[in-house]
């Protein structure tokens, strides 16, 4: 992510009411997509099926915070 996009996110969160919810949705979707991709790779290598519910169950708040810091 470029520095310009990061600065736009920081300004949006600081100035626009409700932008924090948008940032939280962005971070959650980014984390979920990354976890889904990793789970699919792992399931392919092990030969076991994976469901969306399994991926959502592994999400933790500290992962979301880590991704938020990486996004900004």
Explained architecture:
By secondary structure, the protein is an all-alpha fold. It has four helices and no strands. It has helices at residues 3-15, 19-46, 52-57, 61-71. The chain is elongated, with a radius of gyration of 15 Å. The mean pLDDT is 81.
**What is the oligomer described by this structure?**
single chain
Summarize the amount of helix as a percent range.
over 70%
- Provide the structure class: mainly alpha
Task: Give me the strand/helix succession.
Answer: HHHH
Instruction: Note poorly predicted spans.
Output: none
- Taking all Cα atoms into account, the compactness measure Rg is 15 Å
What is the approximate shape?
A: elongated
Proportion of residues in extended strands: under 5%
What does the average pLDDT come to?
A: 81
By DSSP, the count of extended strands is 0
Please give the largest β-sheet. Answer: none
Distance between the termini: 9 Å
- Structure annotation, total helices: 4
């Amino acid at each position: 992510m470029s520095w310009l996009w990061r600065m736009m996110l920081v300004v949006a969160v600081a100035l626009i009411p409700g932008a924090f919810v948008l940032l939280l949705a962005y971070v959650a979707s980014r984390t979920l997509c990354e976890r889904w991709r990793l789970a699919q790779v792992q399931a392919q290598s092990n030969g076991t099926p994976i469901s969306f519910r399994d991926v959502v169950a592994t999400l933790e708040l500290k992962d979301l915070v880590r991704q938020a810091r990486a996004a900004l």
